[in-house]
Amino acid sequence: MIRFDLDESVIRQDALSLRYADECYVVTVTYLDNKISDPVNGITPDQTIMVRFGLKYLGDFSYKTDLLAFNQNENQ
Q1: Which residues of the chain have pLDDT under 50?
Q2: What does pTM read for this prediction?
Q3: Do the Cβ atoms of 31 and 18 come closer than 8 Å?
Q4: How far is CA 56 from CA 53, 59, 64, in A?
């Protein structure tokens, strides 16, 4: 997925998803790169990885992390 700003001719957001499914479960990993910046409203560019694991007929589990916060904590 790509979100493109036609007025400014720049990419605002892009995402890449990988999915595996078989008879028992489904695993989806999504990388999201958000380039939107609005300091007045506290919106900053960020990167996110989302992992979703689902057991067919039983339910699913999702996990999401903010890559920039992880990298900032690691550098301190």
Answers
A1: 76
A2: 0.63
A3: no
A4: 10, 7, 21
Pairing of strands 2-5, 59-66: unpaired
**Distance (Å, whole) CA 19 – CA 76:** 34
Angstrom distances, CA of residue 48 to CA of 11, 17, 21, 24, 61: 16, 12, 22, 27, 17
Q: Tally the residues of the chain.
A: 76
pLDDT of residue 37: 83
Q: How far is CA 7 from CA 4, 26, 39, 40, 76, in A?
A: 9, 39, 20, 21, 38
Residue 57 is predicted with a pLDDT of 77
Question: What pLDDT does 70 receive?
Answer: 54
